[in-house]
Amino acid sequence: MKKIINLIFVFLLMASCSVLGDIKMEEAFNALDAGDFELAIVRLLEAVELKPSSYSEEQIYTMIGNAYNDQADFSRALEYHNKVLELNPDSPTGLLN
Prior knowledge:
Elements lengths: L1 H32 L3 H14 L6 H14 L3 H14 L4 H5 L1
Helix pairs in contact: 1-2, 2-3, 3-4
């Protein structure tokens, strides 16, 4: 019985992280729309740790790279676009950025 309760707890914890990740993504989009790239990057970094259900790590790292690019911080942009290629060397997005 204790194992079942522990499994249910782990499942609920993982599901709540996913929901929180989706919330962080929404906050990141709002910050991007407002032109607040620094806040967007913070929210995207939080989201990637929470593993949102709607976005892959590859997509989030691309968005972080683009946000750094929009701030003309090209070395940081390249760092995150390279992370995309580490995850998926054939990524069209990673290759284009």
